[in-house]
User: Fold this.
Amino acid sequence: MRYRKVPDETVRRLPFYLRGLLLLLQQGRVGISSQELADLVGVRSWQVRKDFSYFGEFGTPGVGYGIESLTRQIKKILKLDVIQKAALVGAGNLGSAVLAYTGFKVYGFDIAAAFDIDPRKIGRKVNNILIEDVSKLNTLKHRKINLAILAVPADAAQQTVDALVRAGIKGILKFSPCYITVPRKVKVISIDIATDLARLPYYIRTR
Amino acid sequence: MRYRKVPDETVRRLPFYLRGLLLLLQQGRVGISSQELADLVGVRSWQVRKDFSYFGEFGTPGVGYGIESLTRQIKKILKLDVIQKAALVGAGNLGSAVLAYTGFKVYGFDIAAAFDIDPRKIGRKVNNILIEDVSKLNTLKHRKINLAILAVPADAAQQTVDALVRAGIKGILKFSPCYITVPRKVKVISIDIATDLARLPYYIRTR
Assistant:
């Protein structure tokens, strides 16, 4: 795979294509055009063709894409053709909301572990997931968990990330609004809900 | 403004440019090239120029962009040159995390109200914001609040949205993983953390 050559924005769109395709599969649809795919994601149809061109030849010019085959290929590119296990760290308000979130299953994620530092939370279950002591992060390696969702307060973020890296975590989805440093081999994706909110006023007409 | 002609993906990137520019401003930087802007956001430099081209002539070819002027222009396009008030609906785990989130101020947002249906929450304050009875949503109109952040359970989403629309809300940032229908004049932006998580495995090498 050509990791370096594919723009991050293309990779970012792949799950959105996938989500749309999975829905269409459920509805029994068979084929789809670039234009329909573009409408699903909010880009132009040339962008769809360009996005897929990084990974080979997917559709048939003038005909479109087979939904089942395209779904399978995108899953494979995203490594979502296997179950991906993730651990949550920080079972506060945000972390508890993450544990209760039902949207991960669509992509085959298994939130397989949860950790907190608060003795009142450790040993309890949220959505059937046991909250473990954060000192047990080192067990992640032999549990074959590669991904972590970071929902700890900003002032605990760096030390938690350091422990996750020592435990062999390769990818981190980070909510904490702060800067952290990781070794180059670890990928961090940040979620900033303010940046999503920030495009909303563009679309509205003030009264 | 040419609302229809600007791709959603371009609008989506504008806050990311803005966030990077605000940080550079703080650091005392004066100018920036398309390439640096591209690196901030994870696109190619031609995409930066194309994004800005929808709104007029911004930079100087071969020189780049003045950070202060570009910041001001993006704020204006996004209507973030004024304080935008938003209301939170649903003060559960997720909603409480939203109320505690410090990242909104960067863009000039004011989370000016919060609502819940639970009598045990109503009247309490979270991060200095009073939780009001959801039956008071109709007060949003005269409080000049145009935006809402929806963090209610999926089964309450549509009725809450209907109440928000009646209260004159023009834009909704939605966490609830469900489909809702709104009049065409109301813009809904959905946050799905699973779709963000879904691009993480792409970047990691399994052990």
The mean pLDDT of chain A is 92. The domain at 8-77 of chain A is CATH 1.10.10.10 (Arc Repressor Mutant, subunit A). The helical segments of chain A are 8-26, 34-41, 45-53, 67-77, 93-100, 154-166, 193-197, 200-203. Chain A touches chain B through 67 residues (CB under 8 Å).
